[in-house]
Amino acid sequence: MPGPLHGVRVIDLTSMISGPAAAMMLADQGADVIKVENPVGGGDHTRHVSNHDGRLATSFLNNNRNKRSVTLDLKHPDGLATLLRLAKDADVLLQNFRPGVAERIGLGEEALRKVAPKIIYASICGFGFTGPFAAKPVYDPLIQALSGLTTVQAGSDRERPRLVRTILPDKLTGVVAAQAICAALYAREKSGEGQAINISMLDSVVAFLWGSDMESQTLMDVDVPQQEAQSFIDLIYETADGYISVAVQQDKEWKALCHALEHPEWLEDERFRTSSARHKNINARLQMTQDALMARPAAEWIERLEAAGVPSAPVLRRSEMINHPQIEANGILFESVHPGSGRLRQARPAAKFSKTDFELLRGGAELGEHTHEVLAQAGFSEEEIARLRAAGLFGEIAVAAQ
Predict the structure, then answer these.
(1) Alpha-carbon distance values, 88 to 227, 252, 371, 378 (Å)
(2) Shortest CA distance to 109 belongs to which of 37, 118, 206, 293?
(3) How would you classify residue 72: left for phi > 0, otherwise alpha for psi between -120 and 50, otherwise beta?
(4) Do residues 171 and 304 both lie within one domain?
(5) Which of 69, 86, 74, 61 is nearest to 34 (CA)?
(6) Reduced to 3 states, what is the DSSP secondary structure of residue 26?
(7) Do residues 152 and 79 both lie within one domain?
(8) Are residues 15 and 159 in the same domain?
């Protein structure tokens, strides 16, 4: 069966990661996503990042599958009119221009509602739509810095801030945007009315952090000191030949760990008799655990810990993760053949639907690959398409492709 969003049409005006990732989630769930790219400069910037031997860049491939690509020069006199004509039959328009740019070029919410009154108009920005940072250029590390994420990653407000070594704000914002769009579509089904959605990367990260990392800023009537990490030791432990992760919370898990590590005497230690005592003396507890784990290889420890019921897992390199039995059992990875880039390995959407599951319809599209097809479906005549092409509206790449 088609995906759960089958019948939903999305105009994707975004580039880089957060917007394209959001649109791909919708596409993977069955929406018809039309990615509109500027032919001047070669379209989405990620097409040209770390590409190999003329193939499409992996960053583009991994955030733009299941979409159709249309090239439109929106600065061309006919560009805006063409896009508005495409948007007439769309359910969603997603854009991540800097705040104010969409309105300035004639693609703000008011302009879209004139041709598509019930459209969901979703906007993504970096720092916010108003305020002192609204007009600033933005990249993922800047959001990590301003949101407090770098101090969370450091483990303490007193330690040197550290970046999360993946573009978490970008990808998280994509998830937030996709969920919000689906919620707005559901609301429209009940009310018959479209609405606008504003999502900033900064807001996405702050809201994300608050659930677990902002205890010191939550109780406003209590004088809470600077927030510190629970421990100076990570829950990643070194063994005789590699690394594992071990995490215990409940009393039964602590008892099981003591026996598995062959240190039953720890159960009689006053520092560790209760959960609160173990938390208070966490550094000593984790250091003792680390010292004990150095005695045997990782695989042997995992076997012993699993047998004892202690939560644990091996620490895998990326090249090891893809072949782990649990990853294979989950079926999260799949392989396909891309006409321009060869064999690909990618992650399927994390959510599995029992009746309307993910289907790969197409890989990342070549720039402007579907321009003619999409315009024809939108009611443009062959003569109109030929005139627009000759006028340079689609760019040289799209002209050559037709």
Answers:
(1) 51, 61, 17, 9
(2) 118
(3) beta
(4) no
(5) 69
(6) helix
(7) yes
(8) yes
Question: CA–CA separation, 87 vs 11, rounded Å?
Answer: 7
Q: Which residues are catalytic?
A: 170
Query: Into how many domains does the chain fold?
Result: 2
Answer whether residue 259 is part of any domain. Answer: yes
Give the model confidence (pLDDT) of 66-124 as tens digits.
999 999 999 998 999 999 999 999 999 999 999 999 999 999 999 999 999 999 999 99
Round to whole Å and give the CA distance between 70 and 360: 19
Q: Are 35 and 115 in contact (CB under 8 A)?
A: no
Position 232 scores a pLDDT of: 60
What letter represents residue 343's amino acid?
R
Write the DSSP assignment of 300-334 as a string of letters: HHHHHHHHHT--EEE---HHHHTT-HHHHHHT-EE
Whether 205 and 257 map to the same domain: the answer is no
What is d(CA 249, CA 228) in angstroms, rounded to the nearest whole number?
19
Residue 342 is assigned to a structural domain of this protein: no
Q: Are residues 185 and 43 in the same domain?
A: yes
> Which of 278, 300, 299 has its CA nearest to residue 289?
278
Residue 299 token pair:
């695989």
Burial per residue of 342-378, b for 16 or more beta-carbon CB atoms within 10 angstroms, e otherwise:
eebebebeeeeeeeebbeeebbbbbbbbbbbebbeeb
Query: Reduced to 3 states, what is the DSSP secondary structure of residue 70?
Result: strand
For residue 197, the surrounding DSSP H or E stretch is strand 196-200
Determine the 3-state secondary structure of 345 from DSSP.
Answer: strand
Question: Is 387 found in the same domain as 275?
Answer: no
Identify the pLDDT of residue 220: 92
For 55, the domain range is 9-210+350-401
Q: What is the DSSP string of 10-25?
A: EEE---TTHHHHHHHH
Q: With a cut of 70, which residues of the chain have pLDDT below it? A: 51-52, 225-232, 397-402
Predicted TM-score (pTM) of this structure: 0.94
In a domain, 85, yes or no: yes
Amino acid at 13: L
| Domain match, 201 and 139 both | yes
99: left (phi over 0), alpha (psi -120 to 50) or beta: beta
Whole-angstrom CA distances from 152 to 50, 210, 256, 287 are: 30, 11, 30, 21
Q: What pLDDT sits at residue 57?
A: 94
